[in-house]
Amino acid sequence: xxxxxxxxxxxxxxxxxxxxxxxxxxxxxxxxxxxxxxxxxxxxxxxxxxxxxxxxxxxxxxxxxxxxxxxxxxxxxxxxxxxxxxxxxxxxxxxxxxxxxxxxxxxxxxxxxxxxxxxxxxxxxxxxxxxxxxxxxxxxxxxxxxxxxxxxxxxxxxxxxxxxxxxxxxxxxxxxxxxxxxxxxxxxxxxxxxxxxxxxxxxxxxxxxxxxxxxxxxxxxxxxxxxxxxxxxxxxxxxxxxxxxxxxxxxxxxxxxxxxxxxxxxxxxxxxxxxxxxxxxxxxxxxxxxxxxxxxxxxxxxxxxxxxxxxx
Length: 312
Fold this sequence. Notes:
Layout: H1 2-27, H2 43-52, H3 59-71, H4 85-120, H5 125-139, H6 142-161, H7 178-204, H8 207-214, H9 219-231, H10 233-237, H11 239-256, H12 262-271, H13 275-303
């Protein structure tokens, strides 16, 4: 186990280094200027701004200076609000993490349930409905789902009842947290339900399930005590990529619902050519997702004793 973890951490460090380098040089290709809105400032003031943020140096020198700062945990100062990037990330990621975790839990619980029910009721109307929901979830982007939810469950429902059942903006009370979580988690729910159904159908055809039926065990006991634990293995495996999809999907959803999370700052940083914020958020999300995938692999080894991580 220790050898496997060390190897994965080493791979993660290399991946992060490549991510830092690519992000730094690719953002230099953006067609714009971080101080494009400051054209009325005197030339001396503009030169002072470039010198303050180190943008007056050659690109290769900026790269090595930035790389050294990253190694010391310094992600720089935002070019737009003059605040440390680490401070902005620390304040806003709490909200993004809250949104993402709620969406992942919603998608996992309901997705496994729908997939299991669809497998048990294979070929029935219930199976067709569950898979239709999954097909819609896979096909429709989260920002479309969010806009539809805002229109029907936010605007139209309010016009019909004159009661704000679901808030369409912000991240405060419970009524403001339902629609963003539904929009963000719907696509993942569809993936999980389809994968669970396929895996459950395969498990239900195994010999040990037939033996359990021959012993007279009830269907609920067979499903929840024997089949589900093995059928859920592929779902656990893809939780890492699903988490990545949820977190990156949160960028758009947070903007649609005006949620004060890290995704909003990331989108604004691209629009404003805020190089340090672009790099900082990318590095942070990259490190977070590398860690998430490592945790998922370790959990997979714990759930399934047949998996030997050292040999993997």
